[in-house]
Amino acid sequence: MENIKSEFQSLQSKLATLRTPQEFFNFKKVSRPQNFGEAQSRVAYNLKYFSSNYGLIIGCLSIYTLLTNLLLLFVIALVIVGILGINKLNGEDLVTPFGSFKSNQLYTGLICVAVPIGFLASPISTLLWLIGASAVSVFGHASLMEKPIETVFEEETV
Questions:
Q1: Secondary structure percentages of the chain, helix, strand, coil, to 5
Q2: If you count Cβ atoms within 10 Å of the first and of the last residue's Cβ in the chain, which end, N or C, has fewer?
Q3: Per-residue DSSP letters for 78-111?
Q4: pTM score, two decimals?
Q5: CB proximity list for 14: less than 8 A, separation 6 or greater
Q6: By the 8 A CB rule, do 92 and 149 touch?
């Protein structure tokens, strides 16, 4: 229970650092970087400054990915429910009208059902799409958003 409280507090502190939508979508600060060095410095600054917002975007893209690939969502739910159901037996045999099944037989059956369906759900292409969409969204935003003018003066050396 203590772990759940600490994780919840950690999540609250992370959400407290979210930037407002007005600041995140400020089109007045959008411009094309003049060279690759400027793009790198913008990305380095904006990844720190908008890190919670970028995490939220990646989370939303992950949910979108699962909602558009329902077979993968079904396989994930099947495995989670199956493991929880087998663990709920506490090592006892599952007695059915068809016979008695040990825990290791139930795990084997779960694997035999979940793995082939999992291959059909194309998790690798889904993961690669998620990585690509996240990278384009995050790095695109980070490279196009200008840094505040104060940070530009701090970087200059005399």
A1: 75, 5, 20
A2: C
A3: HHHHHHHHHHHTTTPPEEETTEEE-HHHHHHHHH
A4: 0.80
A5: 52, 55
A6: no
